[in-house]
Structures are given as C-alpha cells and as structure tokens.
C-alpha cells in the first residue's frame, strides 16, 4: 500500500475524505499537498511540515507550519527555499520568519479599483452611510459614494446598476477559480472522475496524446473536449511524459481604465484580456527530460478571458529599434519580463500570479513571412481568478510609473550583455528567454516614461542571439471600451511627501 499520497483541491471529495481519514488514522506516513491542505481540513495534528518554496505570505507560512504539533509533543517545521528573490531574502534573514508581523490589510484601501468593488458589494448588502462607514472604507468614502454609488431620497447610497445583479462577480478573491475541468478515467470501461483541474492549468496539462499524472500513475489523454470541460484519460504504463508546444496570443479587447503616466504622453490601460492558446504539438520526454519525439497536432485554439493591463509601445521607440536593427519582439519581451519581475515590490504576489505574452523563437525568427503580426504592446494579465482576474494587475496598474522607473534602473545598472535573471530574463519564461533584446527593452521603457534616449550609444544590431529578420510586430491600435461603457481615468500625483491616486469621473473616451 502507498504510504505517501498526493493531495490537492481538485481531487474528488471521496478521494479527499479517504486520504484525510487515512492520514488521521495513521495509515499514511505523509501527504504531499498543495495549499489545499492549509486550512479547514481535519487530518489530526502532524509531527512535521516541510514547506517547499516560500508561500504567498508570512501568514501562510505560519498557517502551514501550524499543521504540525501535538498537544504536549515536539514538532518540526522546515522551509526549503526556492530560487525566487523572496525565498532567498528569508534564507539570508531567517530571524524575520519569527519576528515579522503578519500582513495587516487584506484589502488595500489605497487601491481605488479594488476598493470600489468592495464598496459596491457592501452597498448591495446594506446601504452605505458615508460618514459612519468611513471607518471601514477610508476617509474618501463620501466622495466615492457621491461619484460611484446611487443615492436614494433618504441619503443612503446603494450599489450602482453597473455592478448588478451580482456585484461580488466583479470582485475577485485570490485563488478562486470558478472554471474547472474534469479528468475522467475511462480505463477498462470505467467512467469515473479522477480529479478536477482549474481552467488556468488545464490547457497546459491536457491535450490529445499527452500524459497526465495522477498519484504517480501515467494516464494517456485520449480525448480533450474543452467545450464540455472534460478530458478522457486511460491508464497506461509508459516511462515517458509529454510537454506541450504552443504559442499564446494575449490581447486586450476592452478598455475599462486609463492611467496617465506622469510627465509622459504614454498611458497605461486596464481591462479585459483575451488569452488565446494555440497548441501545435508536444514533445515526448524521457525521465531525464530528453526529447524522444516531436509530435504535431491540429487542435482548434483555446480561448480564456482575464483582466490585465497593457502599455502601447510609442512609435518613436519602434523607429529607434528599427534604425538600430534591434529585434522588436525581443525588446518587448525583455521589457515585459523586467516589469513583471518587479511587481512583487509593489503588490503582494508571487512569480506566476501575473503573466505576459512570451515571445517564441519559431515565430519570431521564422524565415517565412507570416500572417501573424503582433501589436507593439507590453501586456500583463492575472493568471488566477478566472474572467474577473485576481486583482493583482489592477494594483500594479496604479504603480505603473514607479514600476517602469525601477525597471529602467535595473536594466541600466545590470552589467550583463544579453540579459540575465537580474534584469530581463525570467525562470518562468514560457519560451526559455529565447527571444530577447536587453538594449531594446531600455529603449521601450525609457520612451514610455518620456526619458531621453541616447540613440548613438545603443549597440548596432542585428544581435547575435535575437537577429532582426522578417518583422512580426506592428504599431498597436487603441483598444476601445465596450459599447456604451465609459472608462475610468486614474490620475497619479507623486510629490515629495507622498503619492495620491485619484479616480476621475468618466469622461468620454
Ligand atoms: Zn542583466
Ligand atoms: Zn518570456
């Protein structure tokens, strides 16, 4: 009998109850779990907890460690640091694991877009009285109520029609994903659900001919039916696994908010993002991750929606890149990574919470002219939270000027030549940082901030790793708001004494 089992939220309730009770009764020696085991699961008390990688917050770490410890007995808690900066920070400063206070605010009252969602929900449940309720929602509540809510004759404020009938749908709580895909085991005429996968993971994991792992067993994906949200799998004995090959187009389709970048003509945009994943094949890999075979598939593209922010690359930057023969896709990709890697400095998040469109060599270095032309745009979207997003990119949106400035400083100060993990490459890059132009990223970041660019000091391309060939990038066209909707305009005022973010009424766009 297996003495160690896997455990995640997507397992069927029966499987989870069975694993929990076997753990409780001592039949199992251990469980390898996702954060699904963090809260509310009764598995008795454990002797030891090993956390692999620093979790979301210090509070999560304490929660996880707290699963170990019987009443009067010793317990042990081990944190294994990952390669990410936060992990490494605690590896260098282990004392802070014990002394650092838990994060205080669950809702960031500084963030207008997040705050408004919560106020709309509250007003839906009980009318808001701005003066009395300001203790909960901050001193700007009277203005927000006047501008964003609906007032009745008695002076109470109610949820705006725009958020009805269910305002909570507009407010994402971290890690909640409504869409799930069922993995159905059809081996030997069976027809049972093995587990469920969140939509955001499903497409990286499920495709016809792929290998799906469940409790250490290999299952062949016989049929993936995205419309019905199921994948039929069959138990097979193979000693290889598969890795999907795909490229993803990430496009904003609706502008909801605009943020002017101080002292620049450029603006950041926030709104609905369409994520279209095109799977064109997969690799068969052996246990050492060596490629055994490359298989082509012909699947229709898969489309998901989320929320995110984007920045259109100014024409001036494109002209400079062309003049210096620097790879434009590489410059965009490098700039995206630089911004992405700094987001945790402004928003509580971990690598992977927000994603970007990673550029892929087979597209960008192709020798043939392609009809796939991508807009010159830096795009970021919430990887979690389904169609309403997790709220992380909303928050990053209000720090966009500081994020860009930090990114410029990072890239400028880094002594590497072609880009490294300290500046523009990322371990999370979907396409292994193949298409990169560090020099080009500096041009883009600076032009967004309206900083001076010393064109003569730039290297002359084509760059060795990312040669500029057939152009795959075109000037971005503006994305409109949905018919009838108006956009919010976010003004950032940063002064010596602090900063202020104001959401203006909705002028015509
Ligand atoms: Zn570097
Ligand atoms: Zn990338």
TrEMBL record:
One of its GO terms (biological process) is nucleotide-excision repair. Pfam families: Helicase_C, MZB, WHD_HRQ1. InterPro entries: Helicase_C-like (IPR001650), HRQ1_WHD (IPR055227), MZB (IPR018973), P-loop_NTPase (IPR027417). Gene3D superfamilies: P-loop containing nucleotide triphosphate hydrolases. Residues 1-113 form the Helicase C-terminal domain. GO terms for molecular function: 3'-5' DNA helicase activity. GO terms for cellular component: nucleus. It comes from the Eukaryota. This is Helicase C-terminal domain-containing protein. It comes from Cudoniella acicularis.
